[in-house]
Design brief:
Layout (H helix, E strand, L loop, with lengths): L2 E2 L5 E2 L5 H42 L1 H13 L3 H15 L5 H10 L3 H14 L4 H18 L2 H16 L6 H16 L8 H15 L4 H13 L3 H14 L5 H16 L3 H15 L1 H4 L1
Antiparallel strand pairs: 1-2
Amino acid sequence: MFFPNEAGIARNKPASPAEWQIMAQKRLNKNLVVALSLATFAGIFVLSVLMIRQLQQNDPKYFVELAERAAAEGQWKQAALFYGQAWDRSGDHSYLVPVGEMLLNEGEVGQAREAWNQALVHQPGLIAAHEKRIQLLLDMAELYGRTEHWSAVSDTAAAMISADVPKSPEQEAFALHARGLALVNLTIRDEHNAERGLADLEKAAELAPRVARYAIDVAAEYERQRRPGDAETLCRSLLERFAEPGPSGSEARLALAGFLARKQEFDQAESMFQESVAFAGDDAKA
């Protein structure tokens, strides 16, 4: 009977106990090496996963993606927290703009305003934060009509206008229009605010001629300042400027209908109102 040695070579006599011990030790060493290699590989794999997760958690884009998913599901507060994490990781104050948006969607008006205020403390030229803050205050002023709200609109709009950063004509017009509305609603504090406000409104309409609301507000102020001829001329000019059906064309015709009704020209007002409805199309049905 042949007995193989460790090298696989046949031999005529059985191995001694010492030889068996040596062969067993060699097999054990091989198994140990394999086990250690597998353990090392597993450790490196786990470490790599942990490093990737750590890198992800330091990347603001990771939290932006989480925020966008949360927002898509209507989880506004969670989305605000994720945008806040993006800001915390990056130091980019522009992330505070969507933080405020999410909080506003959640109904946290004060916290939303505070988020935009904080952004502007660190980055006074952040136009997106200026715009969000002005729009919020403008909505509140138009809703409640209080002097303190209009005063806040005037101040925040002035801050955007004076911000020493490049602004598009549309952005400049937005701020001027807001300040103009505020000033004409603050004549109780200073009678000259009516003149200043009208100048802002006219400039806004000039900078953004495709925004019907700006020109309509100029016409409304003409009428309030007892310039009905100028108001009607401007309203009628908008019919040509916004000759195509759509929201702007409908808004322009509705403004003229209201003006004619106040002049007690009811037949023309009714005709213009019907035209406004026709221009609105599906929007009017909604």
